[in-house]
Write a structure and sequence with these properties.
323 residues; GMP Synthetase, Chain A, domain 3; binds xanthosine-5'-monophosphate; 5-stranded parallel β-sheet; single chain; alpha/beta; ligase; GMP biosynthesis; 10 helices
Amino acid sequence: DWTTGNVIEEQVEAIRSLVGDRRAICGLSGGVDSAVAAALVQKAIGSQLTCVYVDHGLMRKGETEQVEKDFVAATGVQLKVVDAEQRFLDALKGVSDPEEKRKIIGREFIRVFEQAQAEIIADEGPAVEFLVQGTLYPDVVESGGGTGTANIKSHHNVGGLPEDLEFRLIEPLRKLFKDEVRMVGQELGLPEEIVQRQPFPGPGLGIRIVGEVTKERLDLLRDADAIAREELTAAGLDRDIWQCPVVLLADVRSVGVQGDGRTYGHPIVLRPVSSEDAMTADWSRLPYDVLGRISTRITNEVQDVNRVVLDITSKPPGTIEWE
Ligand code: XMP
């Protein structure tokens, strides 16, 4: 019968016998799936696993530290952090189009990750053979795959590596749904903030700035987002909402009156949504006093923001993210 204990035990066994004395690499995104997959494989093979975290500079406040410190402390995992912020900022310079931004971020991410992989292989020798991925059951069904225990299939060649080197995939979460993944993560002792984390898009805050992405704008959005998250958590609303994107309308300016006079700043959009699977969503009816506190704090504490607006569009027609 199904218990998190059984799942962990079974996977640890399977991964151990599969990997033997070889080595594995796992990319961490800051999200639940990759964190739990990595923690499981770490439990099975310990220091034969190396994790890679690409810091693209588009994360929210505290998220990179959460991976670097809290995740490492909880698991003892060997972690390689690549600080690629400047590279991403350079690549995004002058770009406002959402699809263009997504393409650039995706492309740079793969390049940086593959570079890190090549470095690990150069350091560790050719025994690195496995790539860990946090694929869940719904992803497997979607792509028409089976339900192997520690499924193995060949992975495309990775740039910068010898032609004939193929990674085999370890996907220890292939039989699990999201809520089960969270339970396994909890059982493995991962921090609550990681296990209960709401969805966050791969391109990060890069697609929550309407307009060009710059360091200044990212810092501003990080401050506003941190306030919104703090107040939602304090109000006990984290479990009630699916997620709450906070968006900076950098290309829009609005007139305000703050302190000694007139300001000409930017609006921040709050996009709290309720959803089952993100395919459809409804805007969350948050309590007015919570919305009021968020608005007051953001306009008081975040320079250059003089207006907070609430997105009351369902999906469809509006997507959850603005870009
Ligand atoms: P949309 O905006 O399409 O978002 O309604 C649906 C869900 O997917 C997340 N999202 C992404 N997640 N990479 C991701 O990993 C992406 O490029 C991406 N775009 C959107 C979004 O946060 C929401 O949960």
